[in-house]
Amino acid sequence: AQSVTQLDSHVSVSEGTPVLLRCNYSSSYSPSLFWYVQHPNKGLQLLLKYTSAATLVKGINGFEAEFKKSETSFHLTKPSAHMSDAAEYFCVVSSTTGTASKLTFGTGTRLQVTL
Amino acid sequence: SAVISQKPSRDICQRGTSLTIQCQVDSQVTMMFWYRQQPGQSLTLIATANQGSEATYESGFVIDKFPISRPNLTFSTLTVSNMSPEDSSIYLCSVLKIAGDGYNEQFFGPGTRLTVL
To answer: Which of B7, B27, B76, B117 could bridge across to B49 with cysteines, CB 3.0–4.6 Å?
Structure first.
């Protein structure tokens, strides 16, 4: 069984300040982990993924995430928020590395960026 | 990557009717999936669309309510039958492809926003 917990349903930051979106996972197997972003009225876009290579994963738009097995966490960070980062972010787990045939989505974190 | 289109992009339907959503991919894929995203909620997998055989449904979803077709490796349809207001959701098509790093990735279509009155 696998599950994902996104610890914050809503995060608000000022433009130019760091972003931290928290995610904890549970998986019976070595997991693959993903962060997807969903802008209003748009489809899902993959930000980054962890597939048992480097534990620090860099994604698009300046985002990165660190896989910490001891803490079962995969938090998403960005050094400086931009207005265009305002969106819904989903942490996702798949139980089998390299064959992500069934994804389990977290409940999402809505990121608000203010001036 | 994969480019996925869905038709219609949105629709407003009356209760008791049915709507068929189409999903077209720009290349052949082995695995296609249908997800539901209810208002303000996360994505839930409805079923895996299998080419040449019946779809595989997740717990809580049944073929009579959500019949799925997969006639070839680039196309699938999802029908929402006998609709009620509780079916108002965004329905997303997704495909699995091998990315440049050799690992699989799931790509998502833009979604179909369904409102049932």
So the answer is: B76
Instruction: Kindly state whether A9 is in contact with chain B, defined as any CB-CB distance less than 8 angstroms.
Output: no
In a domain, B4, yes or no: no
Q: Could you report the per-residue pLDDT of A49-90, keeping only the tens digit for each?
A: 988 778 899 999 999 999 999 999 999 999 999 999 999 999
For residue B89, the 8-state DSSP code is E
- Fill in the DSSP letter of residue B14: -
- Predicted local confidence at residue A53, as pLDDT: 72
Q: How far is A94 from chain B (nearest CA, A)?
A: 10
Q: Is residue B103 part of a domain?
A: yes
Segment B30-89, tens digit of pLDDT: 889 999 999 888 899 999 998 888 899 999 999 999 999 999 999 999 999 999 999 999
Find the residue in A nearest to B5 (Cα).
A43
> Which of B29, B30, B33, B38 lies closest to B21 in space, CA to CA?
B33
E runs forming strands in B26-103: 31-37, 43-49, 56-57, 68-72, 75-80, 89-98
Please name the fold of domain A2-114: Immunoglobulin-like (2.60.40)
Q: For residue B57, is it within any domain?
A: yes
CATH of the domain at B30: 2.60.40.10
Q: Choose among B48, B92, B103: nearest Cβ to A98.
A: B103
Q: Is the dihedral angle over the CA atoms A111, A89, A33, A7 positive or is it negative?
A: positive
Task: Find residues 32-71 of chain A whose CB sits inside 8 Å of chain B.
Answer: 32, 36, 42-44, 46, 49, 51
Instruction: Tell me which chain B residues have a C-beta less than 8 angstroms from the C-beta of A36.
Output: 108
Asked whether the beta carbons of residue B42 and residue A43 sit closer than 8 angstroms, the reply is no
The answer to whether A103 contacts B45, with C-beta atoms less than 8 Å apart, is yes
